[in-house]
Amino acid sequence: ERLKRRPAAKPIVALAAAVAPPPTGVIYVGHLPHGFFEEQMRPFFEQFGVVTRLRVSRCKKTARSKGYAFVEFAEPEVARIVADAMNGYLMFEKNLRVHVVAPEDVHPTTWKGANRPFKRINFAQQAAAKANRPRTDAERDVQARRLLSAEARTKRKLADAGIDYDYP
């Protein structure tokens, strides 16, 4: 049997252009003062226009702000206006550094965790849980063997030093 020819597919570029999201404007906000976090930034920047995404960069260990943030506006023109108006703005004894980030310079992971509260990882609690977990019989045997070999090594060193010591 003869195969029927399929009609030519639409070019992918045309489809991508039709589905492409509308252009947005992204700004970098540096030299953030302490106390000017997500909850305070969103209403502050919404006075200029619609804020679609906002992310304050934070330390994974302590969850403290690293002192800079990225804000995405629905309109690129709004981002330019905000950058012009807010660059050098004195806030809580700090001069904000604000500039527009070109769309091609916005890293794909920039918005990872945006619009969500930062969840602090308690590394001490994780380490304690790992150290205090129940051991298998094989792990306990290895632990006992290491302890006995360490004791034997210590006794040998004491004997080599001429010290007669026996501990319980």
Automatic annotation (TrEMBL):
Domain of life of the organism encoding this protein: Eukaryota
Q: What keywords were assigned to this record?
A: Nucleus, RNA-binding
CC per GO annotation = nucleolus
Per UniProt, subcellular location reads as: Nucleus, Nucleolus
Q: Which GO terms describe its molecular function?
A: RNA binding
Q: Which residues form the RRM domain?
A: 25-103
Tell me one Pfam family matched here.
RRM_1
Q: What is its main location?
A: nucleus
Concerning SUPFAM superfamilies, the annotation shows: RNA-binding domain, RBD
Protein's name according to its UniProt entry: RRM domain-containing protein
